[in-house]
Every structure is written in C-alpha cells, then in structure tokens.
Amino acid sequence: xxxxxxxxxxxxxxxxxxxxxxxxxxxxxxxxxxxxxxxxxxxxxxxxxxxxxxxxxxxxxxxxxxxxxxxxxxxxxxxxxxxxxxxxxxxxxxx
Length: 95
Hints:
With 95 residues, the protein is mainly alpha-helical. The chain has 5 helices and no strands. It is globular.
C-alpha cells in the first residue's frame, strides 16, 4: 500500500481550515465541481475562500463561478478565515 499523499489528501484539509467552508458542498468528500456550483449562493467570505481553494486545486482552469482575488479576500475575511490563508501562505503547496 502506498503512503503517498494525494492531491485530495491535501486539498480537503486546506478547505476545512477555513471555518466558513466546513461542511460546504464539495469539501468532504472533495468535489471541485460541487464546490464551484455552491459559490454563487455563498456569502462573500465563503465565496472568497472557495475561490481560493479552487485556485489552489487548479489555477489554470477558468472556473465559471469566478476567480480568486487576494485583495478582495483579505479585505473581507474575518480573523479565522484570514488565519487559514496565512497558515497556507507561510508554507504553500501546489497540486
């Protein structure tokens, strides 16, 4: 059995590190399309967090729900969600 970490093993904990995304559709089990479909009905902070996670998941894909804007996000996130982003930014990974 392989002990290699998969992309899904990395993206789910990242998504769940944002308090506003815990329990959001598509986070666990991971389904990027379900998360993207939820974005239009999410709150502003939830939208920013979901778009960030989708960007990490696939930064090349043009998500129909929008694109991540760092300046928008840091101005809208509360302390808990900003802290989640800061933890990732201190030790970022790409998939």
